[in-house]
Amino acid sequence: xxxxxxxxxxxxxxxxxxxxxxxxxxxxxxxxxxxxxxxxxxxxxxxxxxxxxxxxxxxxxxxxxxxxxxxxxxxxxxxxxxxxxxxxxxxxxxxxxxxxxxxxxxxxxxxxxxxxxxxxxxxxxxxxxxxxxxxxxxxxxxxxxxxxxxxxx
Length: 153
Hints:
The chain is an alpha+beta fold and 153 residues long. The protein contains 5 helices and 5 strands. The chain is 41% helix and 16% strand.
């Protein structure tokens, strides 16, 4: 499988750190590039509560933009990764059901991204087995995450 490139932040800075995750067979799952401001995304994506600096490395220049993610996970695993960034996504049935539940929950809480999550859920429901739909879903989730993690002065 070819890695999917997504942008998880709207940060214009170049990345200063890189972190990656491998599965139990040491197969690469994803690589994330972040700046110092957004380095907290790395442990969140990995399912940890704190950043272990031993698991990140400094990026040699030229570096991609902060928030660049190269992902080799199947759609189900990628949705679970987003669930670690946004706790209301994931953990309910299939990946499509998880997105539907997230959209319903966000609407109930009147979250700012509720309408976006509703569109993503409808998109996922339109063709859950279609690789093009899956890629569009992941791209939209990355866009939503980028809007949520924009740089703050």
